[in-house]
């Protein structure tokens, strides 16, 4: 997968803004998640001189499983991001920015005006993913004893296992 934008229309036109829409059907490094709908990108690029301000919104729908009850589910993912881009040939022209600041705040692209934004999109895509996917905020999950989905049926299991290392504390409660 390669997502490339062409900035040649903006080159030498300070203050010019361009809107770019891209769609892709794949994201690298996805394992347990499938794109249910293609990843849609809406980008706005503004020429600020030798620096380009890239603002974007990515959105898609994912097919995955709930982390608690293992039910198949879809998840709408939307994220916004902002990056500052600078052409490698323009680095010497920008005197007010030091090397450390460039490394921390800017994405440097190669000499031509075509910028591969795949790394930027992948980074923001994965940062927008939740730690756990839940089918609902109130998902009760699966009983660890009998395996019933507690969202649909109750179980009569008694889950009172005490960690052997903490068993001594149970005696304190009784005294």
Topology:
Layout: E1 4-6, E2 17-24, E3 34-35, E4 39-47, E5 51-65, E6 72-87, H1 99-105, E7 106-109, E8 114-116, H2 118-128, H3 167-174
Parallel strand pairs: 6-7
Antiparallel strand pairs: 1-8, 2-4, 3-5, 4-5, 5-6
What does the model show?
This protein is an alpha+beta fold. The protein has two domains: 4-138, no CATH class; 140-175, no CATH class. It contains three helices and eight strands, in the order ββββββαββαα. Strands 2, 3, 4, 5, 6 and 7 form a six-stranded mixed sheet that branches. The protein has a two-stranded antiparallel ribbon with strand order 1-8. The chain is elongated and about 75 Å long. The mean pLDDT is 83.
Give a quick rundown of the structure.
This protein is about 15% helix and about 35% strand. The protein folds into two domains: about 5-140, no CATH class; about 140-175, no CATH class. The strands form two sheets. Strands 2, 3, 4, 5, 6 and 7 form a six-stranded mixed sheet that branches. It has a two-stranded antiparallel ribbon with strand order 1-8.
């Amino acid at each position: 997968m390669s997502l490339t934008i062409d900035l040649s229309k903006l080159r030498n036109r300070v203050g010019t803004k361009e809107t770019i829409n891209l769609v892709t059907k794949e994201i690298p490094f996805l394992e347990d998640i499938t794109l249910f709908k293609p990843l849609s990108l809406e980008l706005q690029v503004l020429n600020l001189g030798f620096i380009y301000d890239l603002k974007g919104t990515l959105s898609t729908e994912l097919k995955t499983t709930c982390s608690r009850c293992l039910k198949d589910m879809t998840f709408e993912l939307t994220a916004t991001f902002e990056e500052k881009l600078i052409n490698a040939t323009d680095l010497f022209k920008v005197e007010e920015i030091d090397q450390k600041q460039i490394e921390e705040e800017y994405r440097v692209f190669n000499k031509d005006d075509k910028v591969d934004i795949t790394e930027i999109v992948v980074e923001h895509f994965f940062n927008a993913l939740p730690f756990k996917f839940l089918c609902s905020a109130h998902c009760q999950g699966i009983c660890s004893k009998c395996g019933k989905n507690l969202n649909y049926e109750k179980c009569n299991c008694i889950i009172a296992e005490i960690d052997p290392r903490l068993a001594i504390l149970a005696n304190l409660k009784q005294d």
